[in-house]
Backbone:
């Protein structure tokens, strides 16, 4: 297949060798599981269980609310111990409403929905409903409810289902291991999703630094003519939806548009496997594979983890720390989020947890910009980071917005290569947060203005109606009095 170049990008120190040869192992059941109600983009789920209730594995604990949401299911059988605020896996360290489940050790499954034996004969909406009911969200870290993306085929023609096996973030190897060990399930899940989308082509894209995954996926795809497995160059951020789409099709997704508008829907390899499990076996999403890595961890691993497991349990399972973790990261080091501590639960979008040493965290003092232009050359979105940062430093957010800061997807490439160690991406994250808050405030004020204008119009209409009624009553009285006078004079 012909590939197309993507703009910019970098070649960071990948450090995948720390865990790439670690086959997926299962974690023994922890003593408690912590299941936040917000594990996805969209509205939080709403609990349907109460404290003290006994539940079985796969049983619904919280249902999705609204068009964009996802339900949560019990990762094992046990008793609901509490529903309370627990620190979320987020840099803020803020608590979030969480269902706490105490496993009974039996791991008894609930009665599951019937398997769909021939998904390719089932209507597309049946597949989408099954994926929605299974609580599947994007496994690459974005956590967008997958059923919503599978609905895109009803809104526009989808030409390609692109399965993202690039895994371009350093350290992470969970997708690599999934592809090596569960290739047939991923290909089957991809074919089911393509059926739901009515997409005629499936392309599975894998970076060239995963030769065993490529081989396994090619073997699994071989019997299916519609499935192509493609090796793409090792170039961060190849795994971004827009850049992978560009590498495969040559089509550039305009800012503020989705790849789906070009006819390409992108799903992660882990999502494809979860769809296979939900459709073929009726199993909801209750576990995922997580890479535990970083120089501070005694032995990095790839672990199949029940959702809701505390990260501290995973670190202990890896033999603990061999030196101080200067930085704890949820996800990869480029786009991942810093964590306040190991006392946060694994959620549906947790692809990896990194415990980085001081050397890996690479904390160096910031120097003045030397205007080398390196950040401009490597920005995969064609932005001018040095200019955007200058605006933000002066608190000139409108200037940063005009320079395109809202088109930055925080890949971190500019910060990585900056010889002056300027934390450019942190500037952009701050500016995007402020601009989004300003936009929300403007919309709120617009809404208040519209409501107060419509109230004033309504009051004026009521006053006018009263005036008209009073005038009509006065006219009626006058007419009645004139009639009475006429009668009296006769
Ligand atoms: S890479 Fe750093 S030093 Fe070079 S122009 Fe950009 S901000 Fe300035
Ligand atoms: S973080 Fe933003 S500005 Fe920097 S390279 Fe990535 S997309 Fe460009």
Residues:
């Amino acid at each position: 297949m012909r590939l197309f170049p993507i703009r910019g990008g970098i070649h960071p120190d990948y450090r995948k060798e720390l865990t790439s040869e670690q086959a997926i192992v299962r974690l023994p059941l922890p003593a408690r599981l912590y299941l936040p109600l917000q594990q996805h983009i969209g509205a939080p789920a709403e609990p349907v269980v109460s404290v003290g209730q006994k539940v079985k594995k796969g049983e619904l604990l919280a249902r999705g609310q609204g068009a964009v949401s996802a339900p949560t299911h019990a990762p094992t059988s046990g008793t609901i111990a509490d529903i309370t605020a627990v620190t979320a896996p987020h840099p803020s360290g803020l608590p979030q409403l969480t269902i706490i489940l105490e496993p009974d050790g039996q791991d008894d499954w609930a009665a599951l929905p019937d398997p769909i034996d021939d998904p390719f004969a089932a209507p597309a909406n049946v597949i989408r409903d099954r994926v929605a009911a299974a609580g599947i969200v994007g496994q690459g870290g974005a956590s967008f409810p997958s059923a919503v993306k599978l609905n895109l085929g009803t809104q526009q023609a989808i030409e390609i289902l692109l399965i993202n096996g690039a895994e371009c973030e350093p350290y992470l190897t969970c997708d690599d291991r999934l592809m090596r060990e569960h290739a047939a399930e991923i290909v089957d899940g991809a074919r089911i999703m393509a059926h739901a989308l009515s997409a005629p082509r499936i392309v599975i894209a894998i970076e060239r630094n995963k030769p065993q995954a490529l081989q396994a996926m090619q073997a699994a795809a071989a019997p299916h003519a519609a499935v192509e497995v493609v090796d793409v160059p090792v170039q961060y951020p190849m795994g971004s939806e827009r850049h992978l789409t560009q590498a495969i099709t040559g089509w550039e997704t305009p800012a503020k548009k989705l790849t789906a508008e070009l006819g390409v829907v992108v799903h992660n390899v882990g999502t494809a496997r979860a769809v296979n499990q939900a459709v073929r076996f009726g199993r909801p999403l209750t576990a995922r594979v997580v890479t535990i890595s970083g120089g501070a961890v005694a032995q990095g691993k790839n672990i199949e983890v029940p959702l809701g497991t505390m990260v501290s349990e995973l670190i202990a399972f890896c033999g603990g720390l061999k030196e101080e973790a200067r930085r704890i990261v949820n996800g990869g080091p480029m786009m991942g989020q810093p964590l306040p501590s190991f006392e946060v639960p694994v959620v549906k979008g947790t692809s990896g947890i990194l415990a980085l040493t001081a050397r890996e965290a690479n904390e160096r003092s910031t120097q003045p910009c030397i205007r080398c232009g390196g950040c401009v050359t490597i920005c995969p979105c064609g932005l001018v980071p040095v200019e955007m940062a200058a605006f933000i430093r002066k608190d000139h957010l409108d200037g940063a917005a005009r320079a395109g800061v809202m088109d930055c997807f925080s890949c971190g490439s500019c910060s990585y290569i900056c010889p002056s160690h300027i934390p450019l991406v942190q500037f952009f994250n701050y500016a995007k947060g402020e601009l989004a808050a300003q936009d929300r405030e403007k919309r709120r004020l617009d809404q208040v203005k519209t409501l107060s204008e419509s109230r004033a119009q309504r009051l004026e209409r009521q006053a006018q109606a009263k005036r008209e009624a009073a005038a009509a009553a006065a006219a009626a009285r006058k007419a009645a009095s004139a009639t009475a006078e006429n009668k009296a004079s006769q």
